[in-house]
Specification:
alpha+beta; 141 residues; two-stranded antiparallel sheet; 4 helices; globular
């Protein structure tokens, strides 16, 4: 009887620890329809285009900040890169990640400087970007 009780207590403690560990850390790989609609409107306003012309790829939500690559067709063709905290992002055009938070857009460096993304988040974003763009997996530095 004592053994059953002890095992039950241990199992309850383990379950509670797992639930605490799985809490919301502010990071997400999905965005709601409402968030997506708000971001599309914000991008359309930022670039002065119709909402139906807005195209972007979502690279995650980190502490309430949405990391995006906006495709609007108004960029010149070039090859360049951007480095944030030692993590190099190579781009096929003059582009950069846009971070949307609290109704405003920021550069990825600003999001890092403000603590919205950390080094591990940057590595996750780079991994996702490189998998979407395998021809860019070189370090230009």
């Amino acid at each position: 009887m004592k053994l059953k009780f002890a095992v039950s207590i241990i199992l309850i403690m383990l379950a509670a620890m797992c639930l605490c560990a799985c809490g919301d850390d502010g990071n997400s790989e999905v965005m709601s329809d409402k968030e997506q609609s708000k971001i599309i409107s914000a991008i359309a306003n930022r670039y002065e285009v119709e909402e139906d012309r807005v195209s972007f790829k979502f690279y995650g939500k980190y502490n309430g900040a949405f990391v995006l690559m906006v495709y609007n067709g108004f960029y010149a063709q070039a090859l360049w890169g951007e480095t944030v905290d030692g993590v190099v992002f190579n781009f096929p055009e003059i582009r950069h990640f846009e971070v949307y938070k609290s109704g405003k857009f920021y550069r990825l460096q600003e999001a890092f400087d403000n603590g919205w993304v950390d080094h591990d988040d940057l590595l996750t974003i780079k991994y996702r970007w490189d998998n979407d763009n395998p021809c860019l997996k070189y370090n230009h530095n």
